[in-house]
């Protein structure tokens, strides 16, 4: 793909929680505030789309950063089950459940002890940086 | 939800290709150019998010309109299998596959004869109207 022209229409094949041509990467720079999370950017800056689609996967026992930001998250769970912290409460999240994280809501995701927890996450392309809590 | 203030963070439960509190509606006004398609708006104008998330489901034998528009589509297949037409070619789409539809690409989705075909579709909130082809 090329930043100078829009990407061509295409089908990106899925198999075992990987998409063709997409490499899983670390969730963020190494830090004590998260553990055992990978990120696949399915639609990102190269596509020149005003939103980005990522797939995050948390290994059993792992968790994302506890953080907040002004941009919203829309999440759809695709693998296993886990929990989301929204402010002061933790809620279970199972297959297909949608999570809406409102602007500046402190939030965190974690997997259970026995299975990975994977989810799609949609954000606007132009967004602020997360603030760790 | 209320258009005057942002929506609260929440988990929207999934069960049998329905989401709690979301009613399936017709895909579009009745027309000869599509058949047997329903739409669920999972994240729409009420959420004041700069992108919208919809779930479309096509009954066996049904299809969406053949159309184009300047805004892009990002689709993730969630139920059954079907096909997408991208310009002159038809491609199979199976579970988890991602479809990127570029600006102004003529496109159409159809289900096979034996099972429904359901997919998530993400679009920008501020978008142009489709042009039937």
Task: Please provide a written account of the structure.
- 2 copies of one chain form a homodimer.
- By secondary structure, chain A is mainly β.
- Helices cover about 0% and strands about 50% of the residues of chain A.
- In chain A, strand 9 (about 80-85) and strand 10 (about 90-95) form a beta hairpin.
- The interface of A and B includes residues 12, 84, 96 and 99 of A.
Helix content, binned percent of chain A: under 10%
Average of the residue pLDDT scores of chain A: 93
Number of helices of chain A: 0
> What would you report as the Rg of chain A, rounded to the nearest angstrom?
15 Å
**Which strand-content bin applies to the residues of chain A?**
over 45%
Task: Please render the helix and strand layout as text.
2 copies of one chain form a homodimer.
Chain A: E1 10-12, E2 14-15, E3 18-19, E4 25-26, E5 35-43, E6 51-63, E7 67-68, E8 73-79, E9 82-86, E10 89-93, E11 98-101, E12 107-111, E13 117-124, E14 131-132
Antiparallel strand pairs in A: 2-3, 4-5, 5-6, 6-13, 7-14, 8-11, 8-13, 9-10, 9-12
Q: What would you say about this model in short?
A:
Chain A is mainly beta. The first copy, chain A, is 0% helix and 52% strand.
Looking at this protein, list some descriptive labels.
homodimer, 133 residues, mainly beta, six-stranded antiparallel beta sheet, three-stranded antiparallel beta sheet, 0% helix
